[in-house]
Design brief:
Growth Hormone, Chain: A, 16 helices, globular, single chain, mainly alpha, 2 domains, 401 residues
């Protein structure tokens, strides 16, 4: 029996349940796993000022470590999909959570830059493996309620990101910053145990053909998808650079307290919970690419206001405006990008293209760290605004076709 035959039987539509039964236990377990991963990764930005001071790190050193994490996250997207198809979903999902737990455990023990960077890389690898395999498992399990299952999964991630700032503030008031990652490790290990018990698939270990040459040939010939991916790459570059250093910018150059800076960071993910499903609805009813172009235009205005606003209240309002634009873009543009691939190869080609544009975007933190060290965070953010404006212009041009 091959791996695909060993997977859980696809449920009939009338038996699909999000919160009860086998499907419910599976969907909730996967959602909690993604919540834990997002909680862990988004705990890092609010802690960066403390990490930098404790380990005597420059902004460039911190930015490089973040780039390594996001590059590792990107590079495993394509192989994750192939592994999940060729082996079993359970094999990849459980392995991803174990690797992630090891990464956050390393962060909880970090007393040097080497340990910090190694922990970030492991966390990136584990998160990237989990992202694709967990969604493939949800697709196997749900048919009529697949969108709801994906919405529950993504929503759990946004909740984890929102909780990160609160967890950070709670921990640093009573302990050293390393302790903030311990709850993440424990939660990930708990999900590993639950999935080991719940998932009906076996563990499978075999040699896998990743078909890199065939995939690369198709991607080179798909010029329409390449243009959309270019926009995504610029978008990812801005988001990774801005989000990871927003708390540092607010504290170092805008005089925010640690609590207020963390609150501003958390507010971005609260906005995401509301905006992302609304943007998807608007994209379906109106037109996806024009909605995406409008979203990036709003984000440019909000980002410019963040840099120029003279008072804390206006800066916070600008962060909210930026968040509306930046989170309205992915739901509509990602669907448009997926539509550029042939159905027979859509998952593999999309995963490979996603690897490329996220890998490019992972350079954003290094850019911000370098310019912040040489000039200021404000100067670095000004450059990101220009990149985002280019992405908005390219999206507007795509919308006119």
């Amino acid at each position: 029996m091959n791996a695909s035959e060993q997977r859980a039987d696809a449920p009939t539509p009338e038996r699909e349940r999000l919160f009860t039964g086998y499907q419910g236990r599976l969907s909730l377990s996967l959602a909690v796993g993604w919540l834990a991963l997002q909680l862990g990764r988004q705990t890092i930005p609010p802690l960066l000022p403390r990490i930098s001071a404790d380990l005597s790190l420059s902004p460039l050193a911190v930015g490089t470590a973040l780039t390594l994490m996001w590059a590792a996250y990107a590079m495993v997207h394509y192989p994750s999909g192939r592994l999940a198809d060729a082996l079993s979903r359970k094999t990849v999902v459980v392995a991803a959570l174990v690797v992630s737990a090891a990464g956050f455990a390393a962060l909880s023990l970090s007393t040097s830059y080497l340990t910090l960077a190694a922990g970030m890389v492991l966390a990136g690898v584990g998160s990237g493996l989990y992202f694709v395999a967990a969604r493939a498992l949800l697709s196997d399990t749900f048919t009529s309620r697949r969108s709801q299952a994906f919405g529950l999964h993504s929503g759990a991630g946004n909740i984890g990101s929102t909780l990160a700032a609160g967890v950070t503030l709670l921990v640093v008031t009573v302990a050293v910053w390393q302790v903030a990652f311990l709850p993440v490790v424990l939660l990930l290990l708990a999900v590993v145990v639950v999935l080991h018990v719940v998932l009906r698939e076996p563990y499978v270990v075999n040699r896998v053909d990743f078909q890199l040459r065939a995939t690369g040939t198709r991607l080179r010939a798909n010029t329409e998808a390449a243009q959309v991916a270019l926009v995504f790459g610029l978008f990812s570059f801005v988001v990774q650079g801005m989000l990871n250093f927003l708390p540092s910018f607010l504290q170092v150059e805008r005089g925010f307290s640690e609590g207020l800076a963390s609150g501003g960071f958390a507010a971005m993910f609260v906005v995401a919970i509301v905006v992302m499903p609304l943007a998807g609805r608007f994209g379906d009813r109106i037109a996806r690419v024009p909605v995406a172009a409008g979203a990036l235009t709003v984000a440019v205005v909000g980002f410019l206001a963040i840099v120029l606003a003279p008072t804390p209240s206006l800066i916070v309002a600008s962060i909210l405006l930026f968040s509306v634009g930046i989170w309205a873009f992915p739901p509509v543009m990602q669907v448009h990008l997926m539509g550029q691939f042939p159905a027979a190869n859509m998952e593999g080609d999309f995963g490979a293209m996603r690897t490329l544009y996220i890998a490019f975007g992972s350079l954003g933190p290094t850019y911000v760290g370098f310019l912040a060290e040489q000039l200021s965070y404000t100067a670095a953010f000004a450059g990101l605004i220009l990149v985002l404006a280019v992405a908005a212009a390219l999206t507007a041009r795509l919308a006119r076709r």
